[in-house]
Write a structure and sequence with these properties.
The protein has about 425 residues and is of the alpha/beta class. It is built from 14 helices and twelve strands. It has helices at about 1-15, 40-45, 50-55, 85-90, 105-110, 130-145, 190-205, 210-220, 230-240, 290-300, 330-355, 360-365, 375-380, 405-425; strands at about 30-35, 60, 70-80, 95-100, 150-155, 160-170, 180, 220-225, 305-315, 320, 360, 385-390. Helix 7 crosses helix 14, helix 8 packs across helix 14 (about 405-425) and helix 11 runs antiparallel to helix 14 (about 405-425). The protein is globular and about 65 Å long.
Length: about 425
């Protein structure tokens, strides 16, 4: 009888598509190294994929640029077992390096500690929150602001989780411009969902109090998707903190997941994406074969009059315009408007806390990346102001930004949100 009950429980887990508890991955002793790369060393840095890849999956936190005419940096996680081999390889090729994070596990543990720095939203932004807690919070928020907010379903993940969006407007939709923001497309980038939630809360809580936000909500419909890659995000809480991809298995491979930000149709399969299911930037078998990407893209495409979009990531402090899949620039008229807007946005960000972001097209600003969703939104949805934003920081904490920085990050990004809203409203 006991065996039968266990079997039924196991079948129930499989039926729901959720993973059984496999235990958390430990990153004790794992370091993040920052490589200082001369232009001639970019390909040599990629050689670490062979050194590490013979034994483990290489984990670039910031990939080497495809090419650069000046000194650039790249960040890579290295396990204790691989450290001697990596040190030897770097020394042999004269690549300068330093330790960015000495112990990932220690830093990740610190990230889970709530801070008492604010009573904003009853302390919600004093810590990070998993998928279920976030869903409960946004449901409560919608109930708290019924005249402004509406909860809608975007779609369903591979494991059966609901991808939610909150639409914010002060009146029924009547053709006004729309702005769409999403967070958490890459699972381990926790500051991204937190920032999107901060934007949502500010649009609702400051309506009728802040004149600019009131104007924004009166004249724009906002669609906020707090957690894009819900399966991957939850897995960073109960399985592997450094998980990046979706959680759908890959046929013929023991490696799970696809990079959802290499899975859109524009430029799909090009440089800056991989055909290897074990790679962190694996693009999938075909464009939109990940249910999360298919759901979000279909949802956005059906929204009328979308004029602005931002896909939030971390880290590197970058505010990036198309294109990612190519180093070529968009048509001159579009590019000039995009860069004028992006430069205003980064100036507004800096004015808040003095934090500098860099504006520019994705490929030359960070690296080539094909199949990114912001390229597709610009290309197929004709959204001129389609942005990929890399949030704080520039490497001290990387993906493990402490909760003390949730509110400051949100505050400076709200300045960019206001610039986007003003740019769109004045161009109508």
């Amino acid at each position: 009888m006991k065996a039968a009950a266990l079997l039924l429980a196991a079948l129930a887990v499989l039926a729901l598509g959720f993973e059984a508890d496999e235990g958390r991955v430990s990153y004790a002793g794992h370091k993040v190294l920052r490589l200082e790369l001369q232009p001639s060393q970019l390909d040599l840095a990629r050689g670490l994929e062979d050194v590490i890849g013979r034994h483990e999956k290489v984990d670039w936190w910031r990939e080497p640029a495809a090419f650069s005419s000046e000194l650039t940096t790249s960040d890579v996680r290295v396990s204790p077992a691989m450290m001697p081999k990596v040190e030897k390889y770097l020394a042999r090729h004269g690549i300068a390096w330093s330790v960015m994070i000495a112990d990932i596990e220690e830093t990740a543990t610190m990230q889970l500690t709530a801070v008492g720095n604010s009573n904003l939203a009853d302390g919600w932004f004093n810590q990070y929150h998993d998928y279920n807690s976030t869903v409960n919070w946004i449901q409560q928020l919608v109930s708290q602001y019924p005249s402004l907010a509406k909860l809608v379903t975007v779609g369903t993940t591979y494991q059966g989780r609901t991808i939610y969006a909150v639409q914010v407007a002060s009146k029924p939709y009547s053709g006004q411009p729309q702005i769409v923001y999403d967070g958490g497309i890459h699972a381990r980038e926790w500051i991204s969902p937190a920032t999107v939630q901060f934007i949502l809360f500010n649009l609702l809580s400051n309506y009728g109090k802040d004149a600019q936000i009131t104007k924004m909500v009166d004249n724009i419909q906002w669609t906020i998707i707090p957690i894009f890659n819900a399966d991957g995000y939850q897995f960073t809480w109960n399985g592997d903190r450094m998980w990046r991809k979706t959680r759908m298995p890959n046929k013929g491979s023991s490696c799970i997941g696809t990079d959802p930000c290499r899975n859109s149709a524009t430029g799909w399969g090009g440089g800056g994406s991989s055909s290897d299911p074990c790679a962190e930037d694996y693009r999938g078998v075909k464009a939109f074969d990940q249910p999360e990407v298919a759901a979000v893209s279909s949802f956005i495409q059906k929204l009328p009059n979308v004029k602005g979009y931002t896909n939030f990531h971390s880290y590197s402090q970058l505010y990036m315009t198309p294109w990612g899949y190519t180093y070529k620039l968009p048509p001159t008229a579009d590019y000039q408007k995009q860069m004028a807007f992006a430069n205003q946005a980064v100036a507004a960000i800096k004015a808040v806390h003095g934090v500098s972001y860099t504006a520019g097209p994705i490929a030359p600003t960070i690296y080539q990346a094909s199949g990114v969703i912001s390229d597709w939104v610009y290309d197929q949805c004709k959204v001129l102001y389609s942005i990929s934003c890399e949030l704080r920081d520039t490497g001290q904490y990387g993906f493990l930004l402490p909760p003390q920085q949730i509110i400051p990050t949100g505050e400076e990004i709200m300045a960019a949100v206001k610039v986007m809203a003003n740019t769109i409203l004045t161009s109508q």
